Amino acid sequence: MASHGYEEVDHTADIAIRVWGENFQALLRQAADGLYDLMGIKPIRNSPAEVRFDLPQGTKEDILVDFLNELLYLSDEKRQILNDFLFSENNDEFEIQAAGCQILSQERQIKAVTFHNLSVEETNHGFKAIITFDV
C-alpha cells in the first residue's frame, strides 16, 4: 500500500472516502485531494489563488472536519481549489497557508463534512480515517 492516498468507499446514503498518510499533515492533504475529486472539480490553469486561515486546536477529528469544511466554503464562495498546503501549530490554533487556483467547473455539490463514524487512527504506518460527506 502507498504511504499516502485516498479511495472512495461505499456508503448507504452519502459518500465517503478512506484516506491515509504517513503523518497527520499528509492525511489532511489526501483528504483535500479526495474531496475535490469527489466534487469533480476542474481547475482554471494559471489562475493563482492564495489563502491563509486558522482553525481552533482540538482533536484530530475536529481539525480534519474543520479543515475540509473550510475548503468547501472556499470552493463554494471564492471558487478556489487549493492543493499546496503549509501547516503550522501553536497552542491555540492550527494555521494553514494554501495555494491553488480558481475553479472552472464542478460536477457534484457536497453540503458538508460530517463526524458520522469519524475516527482518525494512528497506525504503525501513519494515520488513516474514513470521512463521510453530506450530499
Feature tags:
alpha+beta; globular; five-stranded antiparallel β-sheet; single chain; three-stranded antiparallel β-sheet; 2 helices; Archease, Possible Chaperone, Chain: A, domain 1; 135 residues
Could you give the count of β-strands?
8
Major sheet description: 5 strands, antiparallel
| Content-based structural category | alpha+beta
Distance, first to last CA: 29 Å
C-alpha geometry: globular
Gyration radius from CA atoms, angstroms: 14 Å
Count of the domains: 1
Order of helical and strand elements: EEHEHEEEEE
Helix content: 25-40%
Overall pLDDT level = 93
Name the quaternary structure.
single chain
Uncertain spans = none
* CATH homology superfamily: Archease domain
The CATH class label is: Alpha Beta
Looking at the overall shape, the CATH architecture is 3-Layer(bab) Sandwich
Approximate strand percentage: over 45%
How would you characterize this protein structure?
- The protein is α+β, with helices and mostly antiparallel strands and 135 residues long.
- It has one domain (5-134): Archease domain (Archease, Possible Chaperone, Chain: A, domain 1, 3-Layer(bab) Sandwich).
- The chain is 25% helix and 47% strand.
- It is built from two helices and eight strands, in the order ββαβαβββββ.
- Strands 1, 2, 6, 7 and 8 form a five-stranded antiparallel β-sheet that branches.
- Strand 4 (80-89) and strand 5 form a beta hairpin.
- Helix 1 (24-39) runs parallel beside helix 2 (60-77).
- The N and C termini lie far apart (29 Å).
- The mean pLDDT is 93.
